[in-house]
């Protein structure tokens, strides 16, 4: 990397952001809901729904030479209000993910060092906050924020190394699972409640863990001068496919290790506990925990990198207070946006996982809203700028954009409408309305500002 990020850097950013701690915690739940084969079906169905959205992301990211990502594309294609809604909810998604990931780092570390579960300070919503947990989370957050403050080269280099080390540990888990496990443990290939209901229930959770590819548009202005713009689209779609296939293979390996009905009863990190029981190797288990830790940290680094640039650009455009748009002159990094995200993350760490858990579903709907506006923007650009140069052109053209719009709108509605398999629940509806109301206030406070989107008009069309 001479002067910016390469295609491999973008893939590491997106893939490292997608694969974190979720697989260790959630795969047993997917298997319990849908069965071992049903869980794989759920992953592949989710992948097929997300790929059209990935095509849209790849097309717009490679075609439009603007900074800011989703909201900027939406502004150009649809308008100011839609751009604000897109950016406002996307910011919520990033602000939710960071503290949850930071708390997870301490939980993983305590698995290796049980003595960390000492010196309880207080309890919130059934979650005990321990002093050593706070210290570990705060140290990790401070280091990653510092790397991002020092510039794209440092954070990108770290992301590359950590992502490939994480992938290596997945092979240890997969090979160990197949060798130490047995096909006799695949006792439940589909859920007892029925395949369709079980698969639908699993999809509801899988959707949240499929984001990460959407970090790439926010890093659009970090592109190196020698990169082929089509590589941005390939990195986005490749991340979705690679992540889905990896999840599927891990489900299959997990099925060999232990039946799903037993996995779900093994505490906070069920797959790690099951792997240790099956292999009898503490050393291999430590390697797996190390890999999961890397996954958690790359997730934090990726979303911090993308989120800080989103907030900085959103502020610079005129949608937020100008103070958040300040850039460090020496490092060329969004210092005030990074500081803001650091403060929110620290607050979340002190609140603990008990309070953060209800916010996770909010993260899911936040990304779905952004996916919808991206898909709608693609449709509008095909109409407004049919001759737009598209370095990465998805198969089907506008038809693919319509498919992406359909899937993203249906999934968003299913989260908002009560009673669906993926709908919000009581407190989540309240949180959604609160963020919406605050957004309305912010929009009318700043909507009179002249919105400035950095754009090369000659190159856009």
UniProtKB/TrEMBL annotation:
It is found in: Cell membrane. Gene3D superfamilies: Amino acid/polyamine transporter I. GO terms for cellular component: plasma membrane. It is a multi-pass membrane protein. It comes from Lederbergia galactosidilytica. This is Amino acid permease. The chain crosses the membrane at residues 12-31, 37-60, 81-108, 128-149, 161-181, 193-214, 235-258, 283-306, 336-353, 359-376, 397-417, 429-446. Keywords: Cell membrane, Membrane, Transmembrane, Transmembrane helix. Its main location: membrane. Pfam families: AA_permease_2. One of its GO terms (molecular function) is transmembrane transporter activity.
